[in-house]
Write a structure and sequence with these properties.
Largest sheet: 7 strands, mixed
Mean pLDDT: 94
Strand content: 5-15%
Oligomer: single chain
Structural class: alpha/beta
Radius of gyration: 21 Å
Length: about 400
C-alpha cells in the first residue's frame, strides 16, 4: 500500500477507492520497474549485441517502434497513466464541496489567501493540452473557489510515483533545499521564489529548511494556488502564493536570494524557457542562486537513456519535454545573463530517505548520471542544475 498524504486537506478514500489506487500504484511500479528492465535487456540483446550502437535517442526510438514488447510496454504505461486519474477523480468529486469550504476556511484562519488575477491569461501551452493525460489539465475550474485540480494532483502523485516522492510528496523540495544548506553554506537566503509551484509540495520544504526566509511561490493556475495556500497553511508554513507567469515576473530587480523550480522547464516552450531564465536573472540579487530541478540533458546520458526519458514527450502529452532536454543547459543560462563559470549540475540522492551523513557522502561520491537519475526506480536520484548571478 502506498503512503497517504498526512496534512489537513488529505482525503480519506473508501475501501473501493483505496483498492483501485493500490492496484494502479502496483501496476505503475511493475511497468516502470520490471517491464522497463525487460525492455532494456531486450533492446541491448536484440539491437546492440553485435556492437551496432545507436547514435542517439531518436535512433533507439526508430529501432524500438516496431518492437512488440516496446509497443506492449507503451500501451501498459499509457493506460496506467490514465488509470492514475481515474482512480482518484471520483474521490475528489465526492468530496469537492466540502474540500472547497475546508480550503477557504484554512486560508481565512491563517490569513493566507493567494493573490489571484481575475483577468489572468493562462498560457496556451497550458490550456491547449491535457498535460500528463490529466483530464482538464491543471488549470480548469469546475466551481466557485475551485480547488479540484490541486486535490487531484495531491492525491494522485503517490499513485503515480508509488512512494518515490517522500512524505507529503516533499522529497524533491527537501533534497534541493538541504543541498543548498549543506553545499552552499555562504548562501543565507532571506527571500526565496518557487516558480511553477503547483500545490507547493516542494515549496513548503524551503520554508522548513530556512524558517527565517520569506518564501514566495507562483503558478498560472488559480485552482492549484487556492489548494496550495490551504495546504501550506494546514502545515504551518507561511508562504506567499501568487498567480503569475514566470516569463514576466512582477517583482523588482534584485529581489531574491534563490529562484527555484522543480519539473517546470520541460513543460514550457523553448521561447518561454529563455524568457523565464532572463527574468530569474533579473530578479535575483547579486550572488543569488538559480536552482532548477529537472531531468538531465540528452547530451549527458547514453542513447538508450535518452530514448527512455523522452518517452513522455511522445506518449504522455508533454510536447516540450524533449525539445528542452535537447538543449545545452549551460548555454540557456549564459544567454540569460549568468556567467558560464558559475554553472554546476548534480544528481542528489533522496534526502528524506536517508541519514544526512549518508546524503552528504553520496553527493561527494557522484560520478556522472546513470540510469537511476530521474527515473522512478530503486536508487532514484534527482538531477538539478544551477548557477549564480555575478556578485556585487
Amino acid at each position: 500500500m502506498f503512503k497517504k498524504i498526512s496534512h489537513e486537506m488529505a482525503l480519506e478514500p473508501s475501501r473501493d477507492e483505496q483498492s483501485r489506487q493500490n492496484f494502479v500504484a502496483a501496476l505503475r511500479s511493475h511497468v516502470l520497474g520490471d517491464m522497463a528492465e525487460t525492455m532494456r535487456e531486450r533492446y541491448f540483446e536484440r539491437y546492440e549485441s553485435a556492437g551496432n550502437k545507436a547514435a542517439d535517442g531518436p535512433a533507439v526510438h526508430d529501432r524500438m517502434q516496431g518492437d512488440n514488447y516496446f509497443r506492449f510496454y507503451s500501451s501498459m504505461r499509457y493506460n496506467a497513466q490514465e488509470m492514475v486519474f481515474r482512480s482518484v477523480i471520483p474521490q475528489v468529486e465526492r468530496n469537492l464541496d466540502d474540500l472547497i469550504d475546508q480550503a477557504a476556511g484554512l486560508r481565512a484562519k491563517h490569513d493566507q489567501e493567494p493573490a489571484l488575477e481575475p483577468e489572468f491569461a493562462v498560457p496556451d501551452s497550458v490550456t491547449k493540452l491535457d498535460v500528463h493525460l490529466a483530464p482538464g489539465g491543471y488549470h480548469t475550474e469546475y466551481a466557485a473557489g475551485d480547488i479540484a485540480a490541486g486535490a487531484i494532483y495531491d492525491n494522485s502523485i503517490n499513485v503515480f510515483a508509488f512512494n518515490q516522492m517522500g512524505r507529503d510528496l516533499s522529497d524533491i523540495g527537501h533534497t534541493m533545499a538541504n543541498y543548498v544548506r549543506l553545499q552552499l553554506p555562504d548562501l543565507k537566503p532571506a527571500k526565496i521564489l518557487d516558480c511553477g509551484c503547483t500545490i507547493g509540495c516542494n515549496t513548503v520544504p524551503w520554508k522548513q529548511v530556512f524558517p527565517d526566509a520569506e518564501v514566495d511561490a507562483i503558478d498560472v493556475s488559480a485552482p492549484l494556488l487556492r489548494y496550495a495556500a490551504a495546504r501550506a497553511a494546514s502545515m504551518g508554513a507561511e508562504i506567499n502564493f501568487q498567480q503569475m507567469n514566470a516569463t514576466a515576473l512582477d517583482y523588482p530587480d534584485n529581489t531574491f536570494d534563490v529562484v527555484f523550480s522543480s519539473m517546470f522547464l520541460h513543460e514550457l516552450p523553448l521561447k518561454d524557457i529563455r524568457a523565464y531564465l532572463k527574468e530569474a536573472h533579473r530578479v535575483l540579487k547579486p550572488g543569488g542562486l538559480l536552482l532548477t530541478m529537472e531531468l538531465p540533458p540528452n547530451s549527458g546520458v547514453e542513447p538508450y537513456e535518452q530514448f527512455y526519458l523522452d518517452w513522455d514527450c511522445y506518449y504522455n502529452n508533454e510536447p516540450f519535454y524533449k525539445p528542452f532536454r535537447d538543449q545545452d543547459y549551460t548555454e540557456l543560462c549564459t544567454t540569460a545573463g549568468f556567467p558560464a563559470g558559475n554553472y554546476f549540475e548534480f544528481a542528489a540522492p533522496r534526502y528524506t530517505y536517508m541519514d544526512e551523513a549518508d546524503f552528504i557522502a553520496e553527493l561527494n561520491q557522484q560520478n556522472g548520471f546513470d540510469d537511476h537519475t530521474g527515473t522512478l526506480r530503486d536508487g532514484l536520484r534527482w538531477y538539478a542544475f544551477g548557477t549564480r548571478k555575478v556578485a556585487a
